[in-house]
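User: two proteins, same treatment. go.

Assistant:
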Amino acid sequence: MSARDKPCSEMQSIKYESVDSSEADALEHEATDSIDPSNETEEPSQYNRIFVTRQKWLLWLNSFIFCLSAVLLLLNVSLIQKGHDDPNDLLRKTSEHSPIFDHINIPLITKRMNATLVEPDPLPIYRRPPSPEVDAAWNRLANIKPIVISRSDVIKLGRDPSIAAKWPESFGFGPEAYIGRIDVFHQIHCLDWLRREAHFDHYYGRKWPPGTPTSDMHRTHVSHCIYLLLQNLMCSANVDIYTHYWADAQLNAFPDFSVNHKCRDFDAILKWQEDNSIDVDLFGAIRKPPDYEERIMSHRFKELFGWFDSNPDDGSDSGQIG
């Protein structure tokens, strides 16, 4: 019988018998190694190492972003809380630097303007004819006494501390105490000056009888006050609205100027000024220290005050102020 005529099972036995036993053992060992899962965990492939490294970096990145977000959130909450804790927060946002905000709380209050054309009853003292009582009331509001501010305040105000005037150390305010004033009181001083101008004969009639020209300084002072008040009104730019009503004595609708305004509590500011300002006579006695550089004022300024250089033609007026 030929090999082709032998049964299939017999042919397989002949085939296996022809393989060397050592080679069979090697093939069996190789096959076993190829399916052993323990080899994959002992030595990860290059792809697995890249994947693990990337996962670690993503974990660290996510942790960093989370921590940063938490810090920013806490910081934002802290700033918001700080703003709520500061009753002057809104006022600071609509003002230049002022140390007054650090000393007193200035409430915002709603006030209705007493702005009728006809004199109300009782007549407010500020609308009454000149008298010692009226002058005293206006003088209290026009309190232009100086106050003490710090070197830091001077810098925050955009001024140079090397030329800003200090209080003498003999006043007991320390070596870095500077002279300041609150602007609203200067504005009221200017308004009072215009009030006096409206009653010119009472206040100035003896000095300048009818037909006598006023002094150059007087006219300049009035002009200064009018322009200063104009600039302040334009700066605050109040946009509150007043309405109109129909009156039996007018053909056109008449304006109702008695509107509501959101006001800073002026009484709180005035009280602080009265408690902390320095007498103007003491201020007036201060003289320039020898180591301070003085500003050279214009000839016009000196002319108004009757103060001239010994040589007014020396060209020192260039770039001057006043």
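Protein 2:
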Amino acid sequence: MCEEIARLKNLYLFNGLSGEQLAEIAGLMLERKYARGRIIFMEGEPGEALYLLKSGRVKIFKQDEEGREHILHYINPGEVFAEVVLFDGGNYPACAEVVEEARIGLIRNADMDELLLKNPSIALALLKVMARRLRVSQRQIMDLALKDTTRRLASVLLELAHEHGTPVTKGLRIALPLTNQELASLIGTSRETVNRILGEFRRDGAVTVNRQDIIVNRERLKTWL
């Protein structure tokens, strides 16, 4: 139980709660293991639970009518996802797929609803965090609407370096097994366009691209924004 409380305390969604409140939430948590490539839920399925990634990595994405994938976000260990279904009881707004073997905690909506009805202060704290998350989503929408593909790719790489980067000699290494197609999905363009822009970034010294990773020189890359 203490380990679960410590995990919850470090989450943006729960870091404003007291130890007693965290203990109540921790008591609701179940745990499941997922293999790489496993779909956790699909867009449109009934939203049944909030998820906490304990280890591994998860990809959140949407599919258009032609089946093309548009990546929204990568979930790191220690982060929550599908939290939006806590409040509206609706369907999952996107798909979640395991990209690295994962251990995931989950809290069922029905159990959380019962807890929130008994403790409105927990509900208020969660709503404030959700409002901050909405601001991030609005910024992503504005980026797609107002920035050209070069600036969008630079912005996404800087964000990925901030969230997933580890320091190395040449900058920040993005510790994600990203393909150029996945980068294209993140910014709403084609793989060929990403190939061309990455080539420009490489020649400028803004990024170093290897088979397994991308190293970002933040100061050089910011000049492309």
